[in-house]
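Hallway conversation turned thread

IA: we were arguing at lunch whether anyone had actually written out DinB superfamily protein end to end. Turns out nobody had. So, for the record, here is the sequence (148 residues) and right after it the structure tokens. Reply here if something looks off.
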Amino acid sequence: MLTGILINLFERDLSKLEEEIAAYESGAGIWLVPPGIKNSAGTLCLHLCGNLQHFVGAVLGQTGYIRNRELEFSDRDVPTEDLLVLISATRRIILTVIAGLSAEDLESLYPEKVFSGTMSTGHFLVHLSTHLNYHLGQINYHRRLTQS
């Protein structure tokens, strides 16, 4: 049951991420960092995709993805189309991996130490979903702020 809920949440929110990025009037707007804002929408998009591809794709799905977290926060001016391709690839990987998880997998400990301790894979996937949603809200705010 949790697998179905997680698939629904990740599908919904990754689709919304794709819509938000596509809604920018210009590719340059994605990379604006107005006063009082720490990260551009492009930076947050790269971070979300890297985060999910690592914690779900590489760790749980054995995809071989190698994360470069520093580049997620330093890369600039990635074209909109490239971001959309990245989101689509991330969604495909995340949904495939989660669909392959059993109830036992979700109850077992997540294979990597996260934060300051251990937690179940199901708990960590819920955390990743809320992390995605948190940054998705920031991207929506950024888009509305920079296009007003």
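OS: looked through it. The chain has a mean pLDDT of 96.
IA: good, adding that to the notes. The CA atoms of residues 25 and 147 lie 8 Å apart.
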